[in-house]
Amino acid sequence: MExxxxxxxxxxxxxxxxxxxxxxxxxxxxESVSELLGYEPHELRGRPSLELVHPDEMSxxxxxxxxxxxxxxxxxxVYLRMKHKDPYKGYILCGVSRTIVHNVTVGxxxxxxxxxxxxxxxxxxxxxxxxxPNPEFQFRRWGDPSPMPPSYIPRSLRIALPDDRESSCTPExxxxxxxxxxxxxxxxxxxxxxxxRFSMHNTIMYCSNDLLITAxxxxxxxxxxxxxKKDEDNVRSFIDVxxxxxxxxxxxxxxxxFGFGGFPLLPEGRxxxxxxxxxxxxxxxxxxxxxxxxxxxAKSAKSHAHTVKNGLSHVSASSRAAKTTGESETFTVDAIxxxxxxxxxxxxxxxx
Length: 352
Fold this sequence. Notes:
alpha+beta, Beta-Lactamase, 6-stranded mixed sheet, 8 helices
């Protein structure tokens, strides 16, 4: 049974990470998986992700998983069917994004709605594959192969040419060979960060490896700790744009395609919160020349500013512990940003 009702499925997405094994086992997923597919994260972690794929599409998806790894792909989108935990909901048509990040595949799974939202997501992807038979998701982009390749003509119906050359046509299709999966230990030099979408400071909730920054030193710190102060506004604009894209027709947080940018990364970080301007205290009334009231208010304002400053220092204590000696120790990274229901996915690599 396959579910086709858009009203019965929440328009949400979740971020997922799978390993390079033939079964593509789940390593991590955000909480929204329960809203989309009905499973709690602990029910899927460590299990093969391919067991959720529709049986008719299993072989193609397994080969796609391997090709994605072998060809070190990034920002790819595939439409396929995935099983909901509730058997009455059957299989849900999903849009799945994929990016290879060193030794894992990182991406998101979202309900595949049609219309302008789907066209936008497809327009930002570097590759689109439609596996599920659905005419509403037959996208074509500049540079894609023709959607109507020459048809195969049986040899018995071909017209013999005067010089005994066979007519120009598509070769006979070869029988599909048994797909063999050769293990691949690692690929690209990339790092994945998952940021808190609903935090002003975009707190880092997850870091996939230590290739660019040390994972156990960055989690639960503001993402902007690793962006220089002069680039902060620029990078924040990247995130604001993809967050704006990542809202569905109902106004709910969802997926929103890929945004591409670059910035200098501070691998050791800085004290971003400490660098924020201290709020100005409320303006005091006009001071009386010799009155003690003005002296009292000035003292109170000074105390208020000191309290605010101490408050910011307290909040950023963990950041300050890892503060670098300066912002000169940077290197430029290319970044892929994408927003999802409960997180922002950031894929980083050294700029070429």
